[in-house]
Amino acid sequence: MTKVLIVEDHISMRESLTAALTASGEFEIIGEVSNADYALDFCKRLHPDMILMDVCTEGGASGLKAVEAIRKNDTEIKIIVMTAFDEITYIPRAKAAGANGFVYKSKSLNYFLEVAREVMAGGTSFPKPKTIPVPKGEAPLTDREMEVLRLMCKHMTNKEIAQELFISENTVKYHKMNMLGKTGFSKAVDLAFYMISNGWINPLY
């Protein structure tokens, strides 16, 4: 039976997942934690086969950072990231961190079970990444441009973004110029505000 650790700060969601997974007869919930910062310690102590990891957890702890930390410690454990938000960078960031799957919480519990089974069978399961709508004829934003945009939305300066991504400030400016050209905005701050106000980027995670 697959041993599962649930990292989720909403009690109702934990209860729903526990009920569905347990009822299947294939999964055993061996632990629950509401703060992703403690997930690695729980893994070391409980040795789960699979983790259901929320992106945004108690105390502002990032599930994506927890995935990265767990993956550095254990390459075999299966990790499925889940979220209630439509933040467009979550899926590529979850992949980069080492997740095996990604599920939006709006999906049914049966869908969660399907993804869990697929991941435990050695596969991966990720929805098609969301993209920023751009004028006809323009190329979508690249992964690097999206990363720069995410950090812009955190109100980071060019210098801070450059240090975070290990690139030069001129490269940051180049990416910003490209993004403005593709999206039709005249100022980077306006693009960042648009992304945040429409829920495309969550600056907190």
Describe the structure.
By secondary structure, this protein is α/β, with parallel strands linked by helices. The chain is built from 9 helices and 5 strands. A 5-stranded parallel β-sheet has the order 2-1-3-4-5, with helices on both faces. The chain starts with a strand and ends in an 8-residue tail after the last helix. The model has no long low-confidence stretch (mean pLDDT 92).
Just give the CATH class of the largest domain: Alpha Beta
Net shape: elongated
Considering DSSP H and I runs of 4 or more, what fraction of the residues is helical?
40-55%
Strand/helix succession: EHEHEHEHEHHHHH
The CATH level-2 architecture of the largest domain is identified as 3-Layer(aba) Sandwich
> Could you give the order of strands across the largest sheet?
2-1-3-4-5
Observed structural traits:
single chain; Rossmann fold; DNA-binding; 9 helices; 205 residues; Sig_transdc_resp-reg_receiver; alpha/beta; CheY-like_superfamily; elongated; five-stranded parallel sheet; NreC/VraR/RcsB-like_REC; Arc Repressor Mutant, subunit A; phosphoprotein
Question: Would you summarize the structure shown here?
Answer:
With 205 residues, the chain is α/β, with parallel strands linked by helices. Helices cover 46% and strands 14% of the residues.
Please describe the topology of this protein.
Blueprint: E1 2-7, H1 11-23, E2 27-33, H2 39-46, E3 50-54, H3 63-73, E4 78-83, H4 90-97, E5 101-104, H5 109-120, H6 143-152, H7 158-165, H8 169-183, H9 188-197
Helix pairs in contact: 1-5, 3-4, 6-8, 7-8
Modified residues (4-aspartylphosphate): 54
Protein name: Stage 0 sporulation protein A homolog
Pfam families: GerE (PF00196), Response_reg (PF00072)
